[in-house]
Amino acid sequence: MNQDVRRPLRFAMVCASNMNRSMEAHALLQKRGFNVWSFGTGASVKLPGVSPDKPIVYNFRVPYREIYEELRAQNEEYFRNSAVLPMLERNMAVKPAPERWQDRESTRRHFDIVVSFEERVFEAILEDCQLREPVDFQLMHIINLEVRDTYADAAEGAVLALHLCELLEEALGGRSSGSYFDQALSESGGEVVDPIERVLCAFEDRTGRRLLYAPHYS
User: Fold this and answer.
1) Domain span at residue 184?
2) N or C: the chain end with fewer CB closer than 10 Å?
3) pLDDT of residue 218
4) Where are the bilayer-spanning segments (predicted)?
């Protein structure tokens, strides 16, 4: 499902339900050749229902296609006009089903960069990491980029996440930079030794977005 890529780093995009924000970013980064996965941290997958106070709830790992067919059978016009069906169509093209961050196997894969899109998701990731025994003590950079859970904001957030990951890849991958990376760092002001902190400072100054950051050995 993730295409063969030349990029060595592993990226994870994480939101609450692995439906909107993380999947929009996953789809965009995958198109750009990143080695990327996505997850949710909630207890279940929630989608907006016909009634605002009654979300539609599914378990993680229920296939996107199954959810899509059920909602289409229930009320195709409503769920298409509310963008739920187009969202699921996008998701089906990326991977089979929503995955939960806390349910992944510790030894399954290491992620170099984890980007969350909500502070409570960031906190859930940190809580889960603290409960796990380190496997090989590889450094994982966990970063929160706050993005509202709307379709329009998810699209904007995915572009910001792409820019952030491009900067981080250059900083961690040792690539020579000749464009946005140098310009962004020159605008960050102040001398910061840590290359990750330099990138985060540059990104914040360039975009006006505040980031949360926590390194963790996994």
Assistant:
1) 10-42+100-217
2) N
3) 79
4) none
